[in-house]
Amino acid sequence: MGMPEAQPRIANVAAAPDFDAMHFRRTLSQFATGVTVITTRASNESVAAGAPPFIGITASSFNSVSLEPPLVLWSMATRANSLPMFRDGTHYIINVLSASQLDLCQRFATLKGDRFAGVDYRLSATGLPILSNALAWFECHNRSRYDEGDHVIFVGEVERCGVLDGKDGPLIFQGGQFTTTAPLDL
Ligand SMILES: Cc1cc2nc3c(=O)[nH]c(=O)nc-3n(C[C@H](O)[C@H](O)[C@H](O)COP(=O)(O)O)c2cc1C
User: Fold this and answer.
1) Given 15, 36, 162, 173, which residue has the most CB atoms within 10 angstroms?
2) Which residues have CB under 6 Å of ligand 1?
3) Per-residue model confidence (pLDDT) at position 1
4) Are strands 63-66 and 151-163 parallel, antiparallel or unpaired?
5) 46 or 82, greater pLDDT
6) What is the CATH number of domain 32-167?
7) pTM over 0.70
């Protein structure tokens, strides 16, 4: 029996970042994403106080999680005004934007007031807005939420989804710019 071998030292907390927030943002922004608008119903109290019945935000943090059961995720800043309504609602719709919907991307990221005024949509099975001309949509049950840093990660269980028959390409966000896809010559 020899001497016990030294255990490798594994730190159980991360070292402080060696970069600032600007550098982190710029590095993250190299990852190209699609862009979604996520919609839900406003709370009864806010509607009673005169707010519009639906709310929505632009989000690029969408991703797939699981096929069986069908799960997707997205994350929302804790400082977003609509966080309480997304957290407390039973369902939301994730609308995948096309390149011709840059105006909706900007509208649902910045507009104060009724973001749905003048916007075309139809109502889903649970009565939530599916935006006309979106590339695709997912109607999700608000399955779980995880507080992480300055965001809340939402995992949605997809009850219904659909592809709309548009000819437009996807809206793509990369390096702080909006683009669309072009096929590579292979
Ligand atoms: C391209 C793009 C992607 C965005 N992605 C997210 C996101 O994933 N999560 C998020 O919380 N905010 C995201 N935002 C910002 C929100 O759309 C914005 O803060 C929104 O106005 C929040 O609305 P509220 O404060 O009324 O809830 C994104 C904005 C843009 C332009």
Assistant:
1) 36
2) 35, 57-61, 75-77, 80-82, 105, 109-110, 173
3) 58
4) unpaired
5) 82
6) 2.30.110.10
7) yes
